[in-house]
Each structure stands twice: as structure tokens, then as C-alpha cells.
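Why do we care about 3D structure at all? Because function follows from shape, and shape follows, mostly, from sequence. That is the central idea of this module. The next example makes it concrete: a single protein chain, its amino acid sequence, and then its structure expressed as C-alpha cells.
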Amino acid sequence: MKKLSTVLTALVAMALSVPAALAAEVSGNVTLASDYSFRGWSQTSRDPAIQGGFDVGFETGIYVGTWASNVNFGASDEGDVASMEWDLYVGWSGEVADGIELDVQAIHFQYPGDTSLNYQEVYLGLGVGDFTVGVNYSPAYLAVSGETFFYPHAGYSMSLPGDIGLDFGVGINIAKSDDFFGDDNEYVDYSATANMPIGGINLGIGIVGTTVDDSACDRDCEARVVVSLSKDL
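And the structure:
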């Protein structure tokens, strides 16, 4: 999978060099959140996060993008400190049948402060109306050699009067080792978020959590409220 990160970097660089006239769409986003929750697990030790990214999409359905956030994992055994996550991704999305959207993506997770944490995933997802289902796979999850990982997940979105949106999600994190997540090899994460526009900014208020015992994650995986302010660019 080392070649994947090289390919991702090259594709993102190529996309950035393409004249804007050839791109179907260029979009960006910036977010200020009370916590960076990834699959129910806080990546910032429950501290605030500043996040942002952009995507370049083409008429063929191919897209490339990048996204970054601050993180707080503490120091490694070698003394390296990862304070930033910087993701690169490339994919294709499009309608494959009437009302059915397919999304295929490769993602490179990298941590400039501690590159030993870098790893890759591939994703396959289907969207039907307001429902989405998908699965992520990594051959070395969280950079642990041989630690295969599957993440089947589903989501549902609905609209309410007053431009309020509700998003629901649930996923099953499945690792190879019996004790990878505390004293188990799997756990369920869940989320329920309300979104509403306020003066051109989107306010999100949600509940996230996992089935992992709090003692196994120092409260970083317990049920909690996450508040965010985001802006599309």
C-alpha cells in the first residue's frame, strides 16, 4: 500500500495543475468543532478542532481532494508527536442505475509529526435516495502491520421545516486482533446530528459515541455532544 500513497499524492498534484476551465467543480470547506470525532473516537482528546479541505471534481465523475485537522495523540515511544492529520484521496462517483449512486475511493491518512502512523484505506459506497451504505477496508489499520480492518456502515439523512437537516449514522469497526479496541476486536459507533444554516454558516449539534468501555479509551470514546460551525467555500 506504500505505492498507493505515492499515487494519491501524484493525482492530487495533477488535479491542482489542471486549468480551472477543465474542472467540473472546485469546492472547499472550513470547520471549527468542539471535538474531532472519527468513528466515535476523539482524535483531539475531546479538545476543539480546526478543519478544512477542498475537492476538485471532473465531468467524468473522477475527483481528488485533501482534508486536514489538528489531532492530539500524545508522544510516541520515539518522542514523535502527531499534532496534525492531513488526508489525500481520489475516487469516482456516479449513477450506475436509476436512483443508485456508486462511490469508490482510496484514502491516504498521514500525520506529518509522526509518519509511523500513516496508513491507507479503500472505500466502496452506495447511495439510494436519503440512504447510504458502504464499507472501508485497510490492510494495516492505524499503521499496524497485518492488522486488517473492515468498517461496514450506514447513514440516513432527512430534512425538516426551517432548513433543518438531520443526519444519522452507525458503523461496525472490525479489527483482526482480539484486543485491538481495548479488550475486543470490534465496536459499534453511532451519531445523530442536526444541521441548520445561520447567516451563511452551518451550525451542527450532534451526539456521537461508541460501545467501547470508557476505561479502554480514557473517555475519548464515550457518548458526548459535538458542536460545529462550518462554511462552504
